[in-house]
Specification:
By secondary structure, the protein is α/β, with parallel strands linked by helices. Helices cover 48% and strands 18% of the residues. Helix 6 (158-171) links the parallel strand 3 and strand 4.
Length: 322
């Protein structure tokens, strides 16, 4: 069962990530896109060092939130080197998004585990959900399709969808990105139709909906779960949608590692193909899947701590302070 609500104030930083972080992410993505296209990857990789140092020195809020996370993930007080490694990993992954979009994979080593699960889902013809997180690179998925892009529709919030489409289409005009903006009339039907055509639906489950999109406003469809030693608020929306549409869910992550290596993993997370008749049983089924998702996310953060890219008040600690 989920942990009881901890005695802290409402963590507005966790739900308000969009207004602050995505604004800087838009600038970062555009900067990385220009560097990637005009200077090439070798030169671009050299420039990531001063860029990482700049954000390390002049982004105190990012450093504060990262320090709390790294302390929990590493089990010790993080050093400046730890902060730098996390920021440099983030910058590298953002840069490589451009090359994944353009299909320029030279210099990148890709290892895939569980790819047969994806192809089995495609062969079944009913589609499946790919549930990831802001860990590593979701874009590495595009390199898994054995020369053909997998039929994946990314479900995003409208502002994020426009930002990513604008930047990636500017550097890769031939890129066909299927994006479904969530929180709009007809979003659920669009997701259902995509699945009915045998497609895959990609979602990231480690952030709450921005204010005004419905999910976070009344704190419905959320619950507290232990995460890296402290309760954190997680949304049930992606899993609830998969349950409603009776589709399987695969956990997906693309970890960045030394030697410009990406390890893409697919693992079965939940199969909602058979709906339970009893509402209480359906809720237990849902909570079991969410707890498993959080457990895998926690394990990844400890295995590859510098691959975590949630630079905001994830545990609501700023809000809890007087």
């Amino acid at each position: 069962m989920p942990a009881p609500d901890p005695p802290v104030a409402e963590p507005g930083g966790h739900a308000g990530w969009a207004e602050r972080q995505e604004r800087s992410n838009r600038f970062t993505l555009r900067l990385m896109a220009w560097i990637a296209v005009h200077l090439g990857r070798r030169t671009a990789r050299l420039l990531l060092h001063p860029i990482s140092v700049y954000f390390l020195l002049f982004s105190p809020a990012v450093r504060r939130h990262a320090r709390r996370y790294l302390h929990r993930a590493l089990g010790r007080a993080p050093s400046w080197r730890d902060h730098y490694r996390q920021l440099h990993t983030f910058a590298t992954v953002v840069l490589d998004r451009i090359y994944f979009a353009r299909g320029e994979l030279r210099g990148l080593a890709l290892q895939v585990q569980g790819g047969e699960l994806v192809y089995q889902a495609l062969q079944d013809g009913r589609g499946a959900f790919l549930l990831g997180a802001h860990v590593g690179s979701f874009e590495a998925l595009h390199a898994v399709g054995k020369g053909e892009r997998l039929p994946v529709a990314m479900v995003m919030y409208p502002d994020n969808a426009r930002m990513i489409q604008d930047v990636l289409h500017a550097v890769a005009p031939e890129l066909e990105m299927e994006i479904i903006a969530i929180g709009r009339p007809g979003s659920t039907l669009a997701i259902r139709d995509w699945l009915e055509r045998g497609g895959l639906v990609g979602m990231l489950g480690d952030r709450l909906p921005p204010a005004g999109t419905g999910g976070a406003a009344g704190r419905r469809d959320t619950c507290w779960l232990p995460f890296l030693g402290e309760p954190a608020l997680f949304g049930t929306g992606p899993l609830r949608l998969a349950q409603m549409l009776r589709r399987p869910v695969l956990f997906m992550v693309g970890l960045y590692g030394p030697g410009d290596r990406y390890e893409v993993r697919f693992e079965p997370l939940a199969d909602f193909g058979t709906a339970a008749a009893d509402p209480a049983q359906r809720e237990r089924q849902l909570m079991a899947a969410l707890q498993e998702y959080v457990a895998r996310l926690q394990a990844l953060c400890r295995e590859a701590p510098y691959n975590w890219f949630n630079f905001h008040d994830y545990w609501g600690e700023d809000a809890a302070q007087p």
